[in-house]
Design goal:
This protein is an alpha/beta fold. The protein has one domain: Rossmann fold. The chain is built from 8 helices and 14 strands. The strands form 3 sheets. It has a 10-stranded mixed beta sheet, sandwiched between helices. Strand 12 (219-225) and strand 13 (232-237) form a beta hairpin. Helix 2 packs parallel to helix 3 (93-107). The longest helix has 15 residues, at 93-107. The structure holds adenosine-5'-triphosphate and magnesium ion. Residues 24-25, 48 line the site of magnesium ion.
Length: 266
Amino acid sequence: MAINENKKRSAVHACITCATGNGKGVALSYLGVIPDKSCCIIFDPYGEWDKKLGKRPINQYRTRRGFARAFAHAWQSGKPFVLSYFPQSDKNRTDEMLWFGDLAWAASDGNKTLYTVFEEYGKCTTSVGKDETIVGEIFSGGRKFGLRAVAIFQRSAEIPKTIWANSPIKVIGAQENINDIKRIQEQLDCSKETITEIGLLNTKLAMYVPEWDETVKVKTHYLVSKGFGHYEKLASIVEPCRHIMKKWDEEQKAIHKNSEYRLINQ
Ligand SMILES: Nc1ncnc2c1ncn2[C@@H]1O[C@H](COP(=O)(O)OP(=O)(O)OP(=O)(O)O)[C@@H](O)[C@H]1O
Ligand SMILES: [Mg+2]
């Protein structure tokens, strides 16, 4: 059970929200939400986290038993780790996520810090009000037990208020829905144009790659807020696409060079 309650610990929970393909994964990898040398577990319903989190290797497990054993071992070792749990396709996603949340809560210890990531949280919840599940409990009471939770989702309007309101850190990428834009505007106290610019920049700097027959994002942009009414403009190169920057035309190069978004991976 959660042990060593420590009321001095501050809440460092985070929400990462972007429309699909606009850089939620890139943000988790590079924006520093999960520090290097931290202990981190990821609930990964689509199996996206099987290789690396930024530069850190990930060990992925597909059974409760395998994940729980590896987590217990890593957590007791006192060394940093990143582990992900990708449930098998015949399992109920929400049940698996609640099991994962229970495990994080049971392991939590106010003397240590555990980053606990919920990928695609919007697909695992139906509430937009109070989150009565273990995930709500982690976001509202987990800080005292060293839990730093991260919820990743496409649409903030579909997320329980418990999660949004208890996350001082908000990473906002490109948005496609007016209700989400309104919610973010209220939170950041910014203009609609400030939010719509993010998606425009992502698109302007995207490139078609003939070998992949795909148009890919080369640089993704974010507003990163660490409290009501404050935000910083940050951007990340999408590392697997870094080599494509060389092929940008003059206009794209100028957008990149003159950008007011601080690049976090030069
Ligand atoms: N390995 C890769 N190779 C090429 N392009 C990539 C790669 N990973 C990401 N990208 C580009 O970066 C963009 C952002 O990717 P990312 O995985 O962070 O998006 P996402 O918001 O997590 O998407 P989803 O909603 O599907 O989970 C993609 O749309 C793609 O254009
Ligand atoms: Mg993703």
